[in-house]
Amino acid sequence: SGIAALIKQQNPSWSPSMIASTISTTATKYDRTKEMILSEEYGLGTSYPSTPFDIRAGLVNPERVVDPDIVFIPGEGEYVAFLCSLPKINQGEVKAASSGSCNHPLEHPTDLNLPSVTITYLVGSQVVSRNGINVGGKQETYLCAVLPPNGVIVDVYPTWFTIAPKGSQDLEIKLNVKQAAKDISFGEIVLTGSLDHIVRIPLSVLPVSMS
Predict the structure, then answer these.
(1) φ, ψ for residue 146, nearest 5 deg
(2) pLDDT digits over 63-98, tens only?
(3) What 3-state DSSP class applies to 61?
(4) Going by DSSP bridges, is the β-strand pair 198-209/117-123 parallel, antiparallel, or unpaired?
(5) Burial 126-151 (b: 16+ CB within 10 A, else e)
(6) How far apart are CA 30 and CA 23, in angstroms?
(7) Alpha-carbon span 211 to 209, nearest angstrom
(8) What stretches of 106-182 adopt beta strand conformation (E)?
(9) Cβ neighbours for 16, distance < 8 A, ≥ 6 positions apart
């Protein structure tokens, strides 16, 4: 809450979604000694490298969080569209609870424009879309890199882009099952900017079958 207040002080017009995106995309997976953050296994007295299910995007990075560049925020009505795209959803209940309509559901729930991607049942391949907005004051060029989850091939298009202040950029993330697995595995997309901004998008995927 303190970090959110600091961001809000510097950016009074920012929405909660923008603040949350900034905290997430600038977070770090490493501790002060530059080692991977560990999580303790219950009852075993041993530790393992943390995953997004343990620490989400990671620890807040106070230096980077006050100097973000790209944020990922759901558009107007997109949360309702997300609910309407869920399997076996009662659209009447959604309308009653939100005063919205299900006229334009997302093609897939994973298309909700958040700074992370989670697919709990990946069969064959799937394309996920994201849209980033430049909230910085300068034009910047980004290179896209991927650390794929185990058993998954991940491609991001475009592989690089230049984004102007207040401009937006669509990203197409294509995931293909390379090998089926029994457990969810984790990876990330990293956007590295020419002005030293780094944007991380965690990936959590369970590859079920190749077709």
Answers:
(1) -130, 135
(2) 889 888 899 999 988 999 999 999 888 888 888 888
(3) coil
(4) parallel
(5) bebebebbbbbeeebebebebebbeb
(6) 15
(7) 6
(8) 117-123, 125-134, 140-147, 152-157, 160-163, 168-177
(9) none
φ/ψ region of 135 (left if φ > 0, alpha if ψ in -120 to 50, else beta) reads: alpha
Q: State the burial class of residue 162 (Cβ atoms within 10 Å of its Cβ: 0-12, 13-18, 19+).
A: middle
Cβ atoms within 10 A of the Cβ of 25, count?
27
Q: What share of the chain is helix, strand, coil (3-state, %, to 5)?
A: 20, 35, 40
Q: Contact 51/29 with Cβ under 8 angstroms?
A: no
135-186 residue pLDDT tens: 999 999 999 999 999 999 999 999 999 999 999 999 999 999 999 999 999 9
Share of the chain above pLDDT 70, in %: 99
* Residues 41-59 as b or e (16 or more Cβ within 10 Å = b): eeeeeeeeebbbeebebbe
How far is 119 from 52, CA to CA, in rounded Å?
13
pTM of the model: 0.92
